[in-house]
Amino acid sequence: MYTIKTTNQFEKTFKKMDKETRDRIVRRITQLKENPYRNTKKLHGELQGLYSLRIGDHRVMFSLDEEKGLIILLSVGHRKSVYKE
Questions:
Q1: Exposed (0-12), middle (13-18) or buried (19+): which is 21, by Cβ within 10 Å?
Q2: What is 3-77's CATH superfamily?
Q3: Number of H helices, E strands in the chain
Q4: Each residue of 3-18: pLDDT tens digit?
Q5: What is the Cα gyration radius of the chain?
Q6: pTM beyond 0.85, yes or no
Q7: Where are the domains of the chain?
Q8: Are 78 and 17 in contact (CB under 8 A)?
């Protein structure tokens, strides 16, 4: 099982979301701890080395450190804007 860490940017945006969306994201992040490759997409270009987790119209961008068993949640937001941050 992986350990989850969050950035300040992730926390700030996450707290502004409505409760229903936050609950959905928490459920998916819990699943992410078990298998970070399930239902995720490896990003390319400027975002190479990062991953994206789809949760409806929202995305969670994260980095993965296999050696340390660590998932770092970098940002969360609507799919139209999260990649531009």
A1: middle
A2: RelE-like (3.30.2310.20)
A3: 2, 5
A4: 999 999 999 999 999 9
A5: 12
A6: yes
A7: 3-77
A8: no
